[in-house]
Design brief:
This protein has 214 residues and is of the alpha+beta class. It is built from 2 helices and 11 strands.
Amino acid sequence: MTFAATARPLLLSGFAALAPALASAAGVTVNFDEFTSPPVTCCYATTGVTGTLNYAAVQVDGGSSGAVMNGDGWANAQTSGANLYGSTGGVIELLFQQASGNLSLDVINGVESPADYTVELLDAAGGLLDSSTQSLAEFDVDTNTTGVGHFSFSDVGVYYALIYGSGDFAIDTLVFETGAGGGVPPVPEPAAMLMMMAGVAALVAAARRRPRPD
C-alpha cells in the first residue's frame, strides 16, 4: 500500500469526526407552554408561575412581577400555544448561557394606550450589537384586541437581550440558535485534528517522493 493510500483513510476519519462539530448549531424555542392551567391563570395576581425562569439555554427574567399567564387576560394574543410571559416592571431580560444568534420573539402590549417597545441585543462584554423599536397598538378592552410586534435579528454572538417599553407587556415565541449558529466556531476534538494532520502530512510526503517525469 502506498503512503498516499494510507493517508486517505486518516483524512476521511478526521472529516467524519469533525462533521458533528461543524453541524453543531442548535435551534431553541421557548414559548412557556410547558406550564399547565392550573397553576397558570390569566392574571398577575392569581397565576401560580412567577419570577425568573431558568431554561437550559436561556434565563428569562421579568423581575419580581414576572409571570407566566395564559391568553385569557391578554386578548388571546399569545403567538404560540396557550401561554406567554409578562411583567409590569417595564423590562424583561434574557441571559443566554452561551453565544446565541438569529433571535426572534414577539412582544404583546398590555396597556390601554399605544406604546413603543425596544429590543436590544448585547455581546458578552455588554456592548450593543443591535436594537429595534416598534410602536404597538393599545390594549382595547372593548374589542378585546391588542398590539403584537414581531422582532427578528440576524446577529450572532448574543449573550444578553433587553426588552423594554411600557410598564405592562408580555413576550412569546422566543426562537434562537446556539453553538455554531450562535456565532462561536465549533472546537474540533483533539483526536479528529490529529487524524487530519497526520493525513495531510502523509499526502505532502507522498507528493514529495513522487518521481519527476524526465
